[in-house]
Design brief:
Helix content is 26%, strand content 22%. The protein contains 3 helices and 5 strands; from the N terminus they run βαβααβββ. With 81 residues, it is of the alpha+beta class.
Length: 81
């Protein structure tokens, strides 16, 4: 699965994208796995109220299943104008 990071999440993690293998069943479990990787990932996921998620390019809640997903993207809330 590809994990994509945008904006300040990319800056904190240090890469725009990484390919991972996971046993996580939901986005929330994936976040837990990623946050445990290192201090950079932990910093990126320290405040999930400031993070939005898309599973296969569809906005999703933290409890969304990820089995079979090709990509999960993390990004800050968007504003319109």
């Amino acid at each position: 699965m590809d994990v994509l990071y945008f904006a300040w999440l990319r800056e904190r993690v240090g890469v725009p994208k990484e390919r991972i293998e996971t046993a996580a069943a939901t986005v929330r479990e994936l976040v837990g796995e990623l946050a445990a990787k290192d201090e950079w990932h932990a910093a990126a996921f320290s405040d999930m109220a400031a993070v939005r998620v898309a599973v296969d390019q569809e906005l999703s809640p933290l409890d969304a299943p990820i089995k079979g997903a090709r990509e999960v993207a993390f990004f800050p809330p968007m504003t319109g104008g």
